[in-house]
Write a structure and sequence with these properties.
Elements (H helix, E strand, L loop, with lengths): L4 H14 L6 H10 L1 E4 L2 E4 L28 E2 L8 E2 L2 E5 L4 E5 L7
Parallel strand pairs: 2-5
Antiparallel strand pairs: 1-2, 3-4, 5-6
Helix pairs in contact: 1-2
Length: about 110
């Protein structure tokens, strides 16, 4: 069963608070509406991976036709214009928060 954006945001916030990263209210709102946050200039996206049919993980489709393309993956939400590029994916789990840098998402 898929989690809501708010549930994913709560999981990410809980893990971040454990390691001493506290977000302001505007950052928390962006995390809840788009599952995206910026920390020290790096953009993080928390996809919904709790669904067996819709994973909501974004990639740069140009990677598949051009192995040398190093552009960041991006997504467009109803709240964002133009698309939001991101550097890392955050995967919250029960006891851990996994961070996957975009360099590991490149096609090899």
């Amino acid at each position: 069963m898929a989690l809501t954006k708010q549930e994913i945001a709560r999981m990410v916030l809980r893990h971040l608070s454990v390691i001493g990263v506290n977000l302001n209210e505007e950052e928390k709102d962006t995390l809840e509406t788009d599952n995206i946050i910026t920390i020290e200039g790096q953009v993080y996206k928390a996809p919904n991976v709790m669904s067996s049919s819709l994973y909501n993980v974004n990639v740069n489709k140009r990677w598949f036709s051009d192995r040398n393309n190093k552009d960041k993956p991006s997504f467009r939400s109803k709240h964002s214009r133009p698309p939001i590029e991101f550097d890392f994916l955050l995967f919250p789990a029960k006891n851990s928060l996994f961070m996957v840098p975009r360099c590991f998402m490149w096609v090899v």
